[in-house]
User: What shape does this take?
Amino acid sequence: MSEFVKITEQDSNHTDLEHKSVDQLVKGIHQEDLFAVSAVGQVLKHIVRLIEVVVLRLKNGGRLFYVGAGTSGRLGVLDASECPPTYGVSSDLVVGIIAGGDFALRNSIEHSEDDTTQCWKDLSEHGISAQDIVIGIAASGTTPYVVGGLRDCQENGITTGCITCNPGAPITQFSDYPIEIVVGPEFVTGSSRMKAGTVQKLILNMISTSTMIQLGHIKGNKMVDMKLANQKLKERAIGIIVNELNISSEKARNLLTEYGGIRQVLQAIKSS
Assistant: This one.
């Protein structure tokens, strides 16, 4: 087995950054971002395998948990928090857990990621069970909080996946469905909030979006279960109803007021 190397900590391919113009900096970052997007394309089959298992777990009453620290943890919480308003699902169907708790979303609590047992404690507060699936997010693949969490999950018969940018990292040893994306050194050496964070966000988009489509929360290409939390979303909902039923905006607005949601309107009218 080859020796594990932290690619995410390797020296940047760009030097003398402080002497570059803004134009040069932006073009350099963009160049690296393009490489990162391409790198995701190299692991699509692994992403598909993980999503298929997530869908199966959720269809059978399980939940999806994301666990991470720092930037990785914040991205997991972000993806989870957007599922209820976008797809109308319960807030406990997709759960994001970050080392250090919610305070860590806005503040750096770097030492919180070094505890190998805290992740399991955090998951246990949510009543984690073998019905669920846990995805660890760690650019380095070595974060003790995440690695320890996935280890404890496997010991308790819980399916695991991971997203890391270092192939062969310790996190993969405790992941049933690992996703390893090679994005190379960061533009600023070791700043894994950049390319590594970008690919993590792209993959999380794929996981949650594909899963929610498979669970039936999209009709055509429209979010028919979204929560109508503001005027913009209400207007979007009216537009969907107008297009689906070929009626006036005024009638669509009245139906939306009467039934309370897009899906409810479509089901009521098409069954009448």
User: Anything to note?
Assistant: The chain has a mean pLDDT of 94. The two ends are 65 Å apart (CA to CA).
